Amino acid sequence: MEGAEPGILDEVFDNFFNSVTIFKDREVLRHDYLPERLPHREEQIKKLGMILAPVLKGARPSNVFIYGKTGTGKTAVTKYVLNRLKIKALEFNAPVDVCYINCRLAGTEYRIITSLCREISISVPFTGLSVGEVFDRFKTGLDKRKTIMIITLDEVDALVKNRSDMLLYELTRINEFLTRSKVSLIGISNDLRLKEFLDPRVLSSLSEEELVFRPYDATELRNILTERAKIAFHEGVLSEGAISLCAALAAAEHGDARRALDLLRVAGEVAERKRAKVITEDHVREAEKLIEHNRVVEALSNLTLHSKLVVLSIFHIMRKNGCRTVTGEIYDVYTELCGELGITPLTQRRVSTLINELDAMGLLNAQVVSMGRYGRTKKIRLEVPRTIIKEAFSGDSRLGSLIDYEPKCFTKNTSNRD
To answer: To pair with 185 at 20 to 30 A between CA atoms, which of 149, 215, 317, 372?
Structure first.
């Protein structure tokens, strides 16, 4: 068998190289590609441009809070406007610095502030300093530059949900401490409920101006896909039915342009592997299954340790009972799993919050059920197959051993009932 593998791969690579080429440039269908034109977002581009324009005359623009569901063009519009603004600032010799940070990818307050420091050429070690010390260095360095800095904090909800909104508070107050420079903030959020979690002081500072991005409809998504497809594919390889189905599926799922682009790209890859000459609706259907599977596995893999343990607790309960469960029962299994890993469990109230977050992500279904005169209770079940949970967690060094674990509290509960 050892000598067989290179031969198998030679065949795979040769087949691919010699097959009909479907893609001209597949990168055009990725999320981070910024096109020359953003169809159906002209109004938002103009409004954001008008809000930021004062920077060209040396005045600090208002802070902006941009929100809307995933795939509605928030990041693309912001980057598009800031790119054009930088060009104009050079033309008019206006001192402007622009910094874009994805808070979910940056992960911690320390890394966000070091990114800000790097943008203005301040060297900061990866570790070793307190957050306060790094922030002071940033403020001092920024003030020396005599500039207006526009800081975009994408997925700003990650800061709030990680209990890191103190950084957000400090950034909204930073102009009180600067004498020669100024800062304007653009906060971008996918979570329409974020305002409920924000500190009122932060909200009033951050929301000086607001932009709401509504979802695209099927016709708009079709236009977006058609424009990208012209650059992404060779002529004649994309059927009308395939492009319409991508648009319809994404429109049904909250008008998400990212999903539409993913469907089209993966459908192209499926067709390519099958050595098809044209991308059809069948290829789109197959792409939908692949994407959904990968999306759920990725979502599960990226959860925090405690959220994973909550999912795993429900996984064990449903494997045993096969039905909905309640928060108290989940908490019993969860605390036992924490004990197995030697970590301190969170409070039941915090676990209840995690259950709500997992419900919002679509990984769980938490339904409030009336118990008549006994009040109401929340019945919870998994929304993803147990096989996918096994797949997502089996590679996790800490959780892999807990997948086949038999919780002892099940036996205790049974003997108590006896």
So the answer is: 215
Residues 234 and 163 in one domain: no
Which residues are CB-neighbours of 144 under 8 A, at least 6 positions away? 180, 181
Helix (H) or strand (E) holding 368: strand 364-370
Q: How far apart are CA 355 and CA 7, in angstroms?
A: 49
**CA pair distance 35, 38, nearest whole angstrom:** 7
Write down which residue in 213, 242, 276 finishes a domain: 213
pTM exceeds 0.85: no
DSSP state of 404: T
Q: Domain range spanning residue 178?
A: 42-213
The DSSP symbol for 68 reads E
φ/ψ bin of 311: left (φ > 0), alpha (ψ from -120 to 50), beta (otherwise):
alpha
The residues facing 367 across adjacent strands are 379
Counting runs of H as helices and runs of E as strands, what totals does the chain give?
A: 19, 7
Which class for 210: exposed (0-12), middle (13-18), buried (19 or more C-beta within 10 A)?
middle
**Same-domain status, 89 and 196:** yes
Q: Which helix (H) or strand (E) covers residue 249, if one does?
A: helix 240-252
Task: Report strand pairing: 376-382 vs 364-370.
Answer: antiparallel
Closest-CA residue to 281 (of 248, 255, 233): 248
pLDDT in tens, 1-19: 444 566 777 766 666 665 5
64-68 and 209-213 as β-strands: parallel, antiparallel, unpaired?
Answer: parallel
